[in-house]
Backbone:
């Protein structure tokens, strides 16, 4: 299996635990708001913001801010580039997890 | 799949890319020497040492040093505790990778 698993293929932008969680959640939905992500990942505001920003900078996630009435709403969604990177990441991990 | 994947189940000691690589290599062999690990993971001496030490401190890897003739030889092997932790890690990742 070690021939199939190559750590150089693991995208560190995605591999970080919180970022991996964000990508996993977003892979299954059109978009998710900040509070939903926070609850799902049991992350703090600051921690989630930092990791969303990093995914946004990589072009993997699009973040939009709008108002719903008086309440600001931050929504995140996976971009097509992000989806390709996520699929490549899962593929890189496949050889490892297939060992279980 | 997001119901099956829970980032709180990911062991950060194992999740780090180099440490994950060490565990993956050691999972398939009785033991591996330092230079083999270095080559397989394309790691520097310092980087590999740091991560081996962290796995050793967690009790996941046993490191022995001996001489082969005049040459010092450092060998690492996975402990039973490490094997259980690695299996639990793979299990935690299974729900994610099953999506691919």
Residues:
């Amino acid at each position: 299996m070690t021939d199939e698993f190559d750590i150089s293929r693991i995208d560190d932008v995605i591999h970080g635990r919180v970022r991996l969680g964000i990508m996993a959640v977003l892979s299954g939905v059109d978009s998710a708001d900040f509070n939903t992500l926070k609850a799902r990942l049991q992350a703090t505001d600051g921690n989630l913001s930092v990791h969303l920003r990093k995914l946004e900078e990589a072009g993997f996630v699009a973040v939009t801010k709008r108002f719903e009435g008086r309440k600001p709403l931050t929504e995140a969604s996976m971009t097509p580039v992000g989806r390709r990177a996520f699929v490549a990441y899962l593929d890189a991990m496949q050889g490892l997890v297939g060992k279980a």
